Amino acid sequence: MPTPRDGNETNAGRSSASEPDGTSGRAQTDRAYRAHLERSRRQWDRWSDWYTMSERDFEPMREAAIDSVALEPGDRVLDVGCGPGVNLERLRADVGPTGEVVAVDYSPEMVEKARERINRDGWENVTVIRADATQFEATVAFDAAVASLSLSVMPDVRRTIENIHRLLQPGAPLVVFDIRPFPEGARRLLNPLVRLFLRWYANWNPDGDVLETLDSVFSTCTVLETHTAGTTYTALCQKVPHKA
């Protein structure tokens, strides 16, 4: 079973040493990263009591996304950006009592809500950890990973996806269900407003292209389906298997 390191659970990115004038690019990047992470914490702490509508409306898409990774009894699965634990019941049912579910989120309020679900249902093989998804570690690799409505709000999309890739077994899948502005057609004229809304509602990261990053990090990555005029999508990726 993976042994996650609960680093406070995990600290935000650390600043590197700056130039003598204090304006090094790395230091500025670190400050921006920490600022985004803190905004996300405040945002999702605030929304933690109002997640029911989102949970209900997106349930069919989330369920279909989890179907695509074909979990089996005994598998170890990672839920990245788990929120209040909307995927936990389904993931636990798929891996059974001999498997393990490890869920990660940075919002203390979301983590508390997810842990309440675990305690209520007595799931001994489900663990929720407050952690920065770019730094979360486990001693044993996972058989699959799920990220629903989470990667696009990460302060560093690439570092998050690279870390997920590192935590997976060779050949293991990652399924992503996420949101974006209108990708084509006349509706793209509305994208400035869409971006403003997503930034306000979810602290969406306008600088992170989730699909492009998934395609560059994983050996294969395919968009399985899209909904709501292409603004929500499910992508299935796979880590390179071991060569025979």
Distinctive features:
7 strands; alpha/beta; 38% helix; 244 residues; Rossmann fold
Structure description:
With 244 residues, this protein is α/β, with parallel strands linked by helices. It has a single domain (25-238), classed as Rossmann fold (3-Layer(aba) Sandwich), CATH 3.40.50.150. The chain is built from eight helices and seven strands. The chain has helices at residues 25-47, 52-57, 59-68, 88-95, 108-121, 157-167, 191-202, 210-217; strands at 76-80, 100-105, 126-130, 144-148, 173-179, 220-227, 232-238. Strands 3-2-1-4-5-7-6 form a seven-stranded mixed β-sheet, with helices on both faces. β1, α4 and β2 form a beta-alpha-beta unit. α6 packs parallel to α8. The radius of gyration is 18 Å and the shape is globular. The two termini are 25 Å apart. The model is unreliable at 1-5 and 7-20 (pLDDT under 50).
Q: Assign the CATH topology.
A: Rossmann fold
CATH class: Alpha Beta
Give the CATH superfamily: Vaccinia Virus protein VP39
Give the overall shape, derived from the CA principal axes.
globular
- Beta content: 15-25%
**How many separate domains make up the residues?**
1
Largest sheet: 7 strands, mixed
What's the β-strand tally? 7
Order of helices and strands: HHHEHEHEEHEHHEE
- Tally the helices: 8
Structural class: alpha/beta
Write out the strand line-up for the largest beta sheet, numbering strands in chain order: 3-2-1-4-5-7-6
